[in-house]
Structure formats: C-alpha cells, structure tokens
Amino acid sequence: MKRALPVVSALLLAGCNMAPTYRPPTNVTIPPSFKEAPGWGVAQPSDAAARGEWWALFNDPTLDALERKVVVTNQNVAAARGAYEAARALVMVQRSALFPTVTGSASGQHSQAFSGGTATSIGAGSGNGAGVGSNTVTTSGSRYALSIGASWEPDLWGRLGNAVTQAKANAQASAGDLANATLSAQGELATNYVELRGIDAQIVLLDATIKDYQRALTITTNKYKAGTVAHSDVYQAQTSLSNAIASRQDLDRQRAVLEHAIAVLAGENPSTFTLPPVAWQPTVPAVPGVLPSTLLERRPDVAAAERRVAAANANIGIQRAAYFPQFTLSGNAGTSGSKVSQLFSAATSLWSFGLSGLMTLLDFGARHGQVLQARGQYDQAVATYRQTTLTAFQQVEDNLAATRSLADVTKSRADAAEAATRAETIANNQYRSGLVDYSEVIVAQTTALSARQSQIQAVINQQTAAIALVQAIGGGWSPAAPAK
Description:
single chain, alpha+beta, four-stranded antiparallel β-sheet, 57% helix
C-alpha cells in the first residue's frame, strides 16, 4: 500500500482539463434600444425568474383556469418535462463516474465426498471358507469467503469532468426547452381563446344583422305587394339575408375548430370539451417593456441555445482526452475459512492493489475525426445561438410595430363602423320613404356589416399582437409595471 501511494498522488497531480476555456458566444450586437419603440424598457427580468401569469391582464376567469391547466395536462409540456427529468438524471450518472466503484461478494459452500472398497477374509475352522465385506469412507467440509473490491479511474485529462459539465449544460438547456414549451403552449392557447371570443362577438353581430335583414325583407315584400317597388328589390333583400345566414353558419365551423384546438392545448379530449359563449371583453393589455440587453436573459430559447454551446465546448475536451491513456486503480480485500468465525481472522485475509492502463496506439484518424466533429458541432451550436438571438430581436421588433400600429387601426375601424352604421340607418329611412332605390340600402348594409366585423377583428388583432409580444420578450412581467 505504501508503494502505491506515490503512484496515486502522481496521477492526481497530473490531472488537467482538455476542454477550451468556455466563453459565451460574442459578435451579437445588442442595440441600445428597439427601433420600433425607442426608450421602451422598464423590466428587469432574468431567465431564472418565473414567467408569471401574464394572461391575468385579460381579466378573464375562464382563460385563467385554462392557462393553469396547460402546465399540468398539456402533453407537449409533459414531454418536455420528461426530457428535463431525464437530463437531470444523466448528470447524476456522469457525476458518479468521478468516484470509486465499490463491490462486495460473499459465498458459502458445503461439500461431502464418498469413497468405498471391498475386502476378502479367510477364516480358520473345520473347513475352508471365504467371506466378502465392504468398507465406505465419508468426508465433508465447508468453505466460506467474503471479499470487497473497489476500482477508480482518475480523471487525469478532464474527460469525466467534462462529461459532467456537458450533462449539466444539457440539463440547463432542457430546462430552457421546458420553459419555452410551456410559454409557447400558453401563448397559443391564449391566441386561440381570444380568437374564439372574437368569433362569439361576430356571432352576436351577425345574429342581430340577420334579424335586421329579415325585417328589411318583410318590409320590401310588403312594398312589392303594394306595388310600390319592383320584384328585384325582394330578390336583393333575400340575397342579403341568405349571405348573412351563410356567414353565420361558417362562424360555427370556425368556432368549433378553435374550441377543439383549445381542448388539446389544455390536455382534454375535444369530444367532451365545451366552451360556452360569454359576453365579449375587448380587453387589450398594455405590455410593459424590456431592455434589449435583458432580452437575452429572459428568453428561454436563447438561454437554452447558449447552454448547448457550453455543452458542445465540453464535448471538445471529452474527445481530446481520447489521445491520452486511461488509468484504473483497483484494490481487493478478501477472507476465507472453513468456519464463519474464521472470516474475521487476520491469518485468513488476503488483499491486493493494482494499477492498469489503456491507450489506443493506432486508430487511423478516428480520434482526430472525433475532435474535428466536436469542433464542428460547437460551431453549429454557436451559429444556432446567434440565429436564435437575431430571431428574438426580430420578433420583438415585429410585435412592437404591430402593437403600435394596430392601436391606430382599431381607432380608425371604430370610426368607420360608427359612420357606416349611421349611413345604413339613413339609407333604410330614405328607402322606406321612397327616396332611394333598394340598391343603395344593399350597399349601405354591406358596408356597415363589413365595417363592424373589421372593428371586432381589429381588436382581436391587437390582443393577439400583445400575446405574441409576451412570447417575444420571454414571458410575464409585473402587472403593476407601467407601459411605455
């Protein structure tokens, strides 16, 4: 044992890390502000911070309940959660390789042997006689053994340590994937939900329009019977009514598709899931800002991409270590005896200690190719990280522009709907008074219906743009934060 200690010490002192020093990827230009919203930046987030219940700003209890179910029952999120747990477990597996492996064994054996022979004897007496007899010998014995052994591979070149580093980085990337999957599912559900509620609002609008068109058809029919209008006016009124009914029927189809999508996102069977209509709430949340420099900290996909760069960097060290020999220290101590009490007697003990090494002498470029492959994977991870970052800024800029412009669009649509409604009322009154043809009423009705539908759609677009901006900046914020 004393002779082995210098060898162990030398191996420990010789350990080194073959991985390049890791530095997060650079060359990603961070602008001082967003072009579409100069000065927009009040949040102080980080990727480790909770995403927050950002959907609460819509002030819709039904949406709140659905969003909370996403984390628990959405199957894509569950799959991402399973991948994350597997990645965490792999860290434990890789870390265990840094420590010795200890094994133990015990055995007991009882044996018994038989041996037999034949003897002939001649006895004295009145006559000669011969006697035959047999003799059997039995031997038995017991043997007990107890041993404990250990083996350990010193991490001389950092191969095992880099494997742990790689596993940790991949686990952190998997955590980012889980956060991103959750945010994506919640954002998709919120988008589908506001679109469904917008369709509910359009259904209410069309139901009222159909009643108006039915009254207009009745009035036109009565005027035709009185001989004051042509039969073509009746046909035009019927055409407007039939088109409105067809549009209303198509809304049922659109609503059903969105309801089915929401059911799947919430982890429920579409066949048993129902969202009853409720009064429309055209709430458009004001999204607080985020500084460009902190965008990289809060986006889970950006954080995951950076962690994969770190994992690829550690893999270079793992592949480089293959150029050097692997050493294994092993030791074993055992005892044996014919009785259990003898197992603990020093006279029956045996121990051993050994050192073995393994090194590939010729592989015709296999190790070199593996190192080059690891470097190529690192370059790929860096490029993916930079592309993810650029995409993040693009998405924020796109949705900032949409949020700003759609607010103006909604106001203009509201003004147009109000004017079209007044024009429709005037046209109906003039027609009933016989001042205009029914064709003018048709034009006014069509224009008014289109304007009111566009007004509803403009609000839905604002809501979906706000949701998209939430996803672009990486999640929630404090509801008390002021909007810029």
